[in-house]
Amino acid sequence: MAKATLSYCILKTYKGIFKKEHSGNVQVIFIPASPNFIGLMLLGKLDEPPYLYAAQQIVFGPIEYMTEIRDEMISDEKFEIIEELPCSVSSSNSGWTYNVTSSKGKHIGKKLIIEFTPEYSGGDQKIFTINGDLNLVHTENVDDKLVKMSGKVKAAKFKSIGKTNKIMGKYIGK
After folding, report:
1. 3 state DSSP class of 27
2. In the chain, N or C terminus with fewer CB closer than 10 Å?
3. Could you tell me if 4 and 32 are in contact, meaning their C-beta atoms sit under 8 angstroms apart?
4. Rounded CA gap, 78 and 48, in Å?
5. pLDDT exceeds cutoff 50 at 160
6. Rounded CA gap, 94 and 117, in Å?
7. Alpha-carbon span 98 to 132, nearest angstrom
8. How many CB atoms lie under 10 A from the CB of residue 38?
């Protein structure tokens, strides 16, 4: 099991004062997946079973770029790290398991299981499920049948932030 840091962040996608609980925010989890990292945009809580969330991949790349991407986004003042927790990572054929090695955080529970979900994915959308105890700043419920559409709507919000796309694009494909 590799040691790493899991980050829960909020990206502001609207004009005006930054409010953590605004429905226009995009919630992101940066997770190490050695030797790479993945950035997942949280789409919402699925109907069944409890503690199951849908998330769409927004960035994937070498782990050494993760801190650089976060630092550049923070300097834009539209991005805030809500919680970072040390964790151990183990991988399987379908995804990763993260065990928080410190005490449970305010927003992230002790264990998250993240798996690629082909039935929700399609085209350039890669949808993952996150099984674990998350106490998100703002939670939306997502119907199982509308996960793809929800991903497209949130991705449009995310892509509307020009500087964010430039920051992400700078690191992908290096």
Report:
1. strand
2. C
3. yes
4. 32
5. no
6. 8
7. 10
8. 22
Give the tokens for residue 12. 């502001």
pLDDT category at 161 given cuts 50, 70, 90 is very low
Respond yes or no on whether the N-terminal peptide bond of residue 49 is cis (omega within 30° of 0): yes
Name the token pair of 66. 């993760």
Task: Give the pLDDT band (50/70/90) at residue 32.
Answer: confident
- Separation of first and last alpha carbons in the chain: 27
Global confidence as pTM:
0.78
Tokens 């991705």 label which residue?
155
Runs of H (alpha helix) within 66-141: 66-75
C-alpha angle 114-120-126 in degrees, rounded to nearest 5: 60
Q: pLDDT tens digit string along 94-117?
A: 777 878 877 778 998 888 888 888
The two structure tokens encoding residue 7: 């980050």
Task: Give the model's pLDDT for residue 22.
Answer: 67
Per domain, the residue ranges of the chain are 2-157
CA atoms within a 13 Å half-sphere pointing along the CA-CB vector of 1: 14
CA separation for the pair 156, 150 (Å, rounded): 10
